[in-house]
Design a protein that fits this description.
By secondary structure, this protein is mainly alpha-helical. Helices cover 66% and strands 1% of the residues. The radius of gyration is 20 Å and the shape is globular.
């Protein structure tokens, strides 16, 4: 089976496509079946809906963080998602328990960092910086597995990395550089990068699992693996919520420390009380719809749409995050951020291309037509 752990969903799925299969959930290791034109557009539309859904997570996450501590919003979201997917846990193949837990731990780090980043950073920027997985996954593969990533053998990786670094450089112009000049670092940007490291490591582990699986366990493990992955994220975020809520250790210095100790804030911030507050709709949306339900749709779409087409569709996620950030939060992007975001999206698309296609388009590269 080819595991596709959960969301960042969409854009990072495409971002890592050149090294491992895309994420949230799991799919068969066989290629998507041929679909008629009348069928194919339905599954492409389904993947587009998935990208739109994932794109809403960023602005909605910011709105939830205005009403709840980041630890409470993350914990509540994934507790609801874990409960929704819990019926599938018992179907998990025992051999996949620890791999599913390991990817869940990495995703937990990614989602926690994402939530912290959204406290003071524009939703679109957090989404774009998350696409640094384009660089993280190939670097892990080269460093730990000795995978050959030369310009001749993997031109799409280098081109995607170049586009990503250029895009991130443009995204960092402005507030981040001002923070550096003032002797500090933009915390939201750092958490956004940690987000990419967590998700990228999860991609890498899934890629290792794919390469080691040789008996085709089958697509029946798609939802069970996803359920365990989400349950692990829920457990890790719950631990964060307890430590933050009780002001344990270094979290005692956080602005939200102690919210579990006080009866009033505990009832307002913890489930089920949080569902009755301003953040209730956001928790239900991100937990049940864009974390649980959307993954089911994504899994179905990824098994029916060729990877080349799927990569382009899911790479639109940051664009939807930007659109909803503007609609829900009134967050606009400076011109250089628009260009930087476009470069990042282009990197996601390029990383899903076959090496031969890149060499054909750029014949001056090593291995290209002109270099032979």
């Amino acid at each position: 089976i080819a595991l596709v752990p959960n969301t960042w969903h969409g854009a990072t799925a495409a971002a890592a496509a050149s090294t491992v299969l895309p994420r949230p959930a799991v799919r068969c290791c066989t290629a998507p079946p041929e679909e008629t034109d009348s069928d194919a557009w339905q599954f492409k539309l389904l993947l587009l809906a998935v990208a739109v859904g994932y794109g809403t997570n960023f602005p909605v996450g910011r709105l939830m963080n205005e009403a709840l501590p980041a630890a409470a919003s993350t914990s509540g979201r994934f507790l609801l998602a874990a409960l929704a997917l819990s019926p599938f846990i018992s179907r998990l193949d025992r051999r996949l328990i620890w791999p599913a837990v390991a990817t869940g731990l990495c995703d937990g780090v990614g989602y926690s960092a994402q939530s912290l980043a959204l406290c003071d950073t524009a939703a679109a920027k957090v989404s774009f910086l998350g696409a640094l997985t384009v660089v993280v996954v190939p670097c892990l593969s080269a460093a730990l597995d000795g995978k050959r990533l030369g310009l001749a053998s993997a031109p799409q990786v280098w081109l995607a990395a170049l586009l990503t670094l250029g895009g991130v450089g443009l995204l960092e112009i402005g507030d981040s550089l001002d923070a550096l000049r003032a002797g500090g670092v933009a915390a939201g940007d750092l958490w956004s990068i940690v987000q990419a490291l967590g998700f990228g490591t999860s991609f890498y582990l899934i890629g290792r699992l794919i390469s080691e699986d040789d008996d085709g366990a089958g697509a029946d493990q798609v939802l069970p693996v996803t359920a365990v992955n989400v349950a692990t994220v829920a457990a890790l975020s719950a631990l964060w919520a307890v430590c933050d809520g009780c002001g344990v250790g270094p979290l005692a210095a956080s602005s939200s420390a102690g919210w579990l100790v006080d009866a009033g804030t505990r009832d307002a911030f913890a489930l089920p009380g949080a569902l009755r507050g301003d953040s209730g709709g956001g928790l239900l949306w991100t937990g049940l719809v864009t974390t649980a339900l959307v993954r089911v749709g994504e899994t179905k779409g990824l098994t029916r749409v060729p990877q080349s087409a799927a990569s382009v569709i899911v790479a639109t996620e940051p664009l939807w995050a930007s659109a909803f950030g503007l609609l829900l939060l009134g967050e606009g992007l400076d011109p250089q951020c628009v260009v930087g975001g476009a470069l990042v999206v282009a990197a996601c698309v390029v990383s899903g291309l076959e090496p031969a296609a890149v060499r054909a388009a750029l014949p001056f590269l090593p291995g290209g037509v002109r270099s032979r």
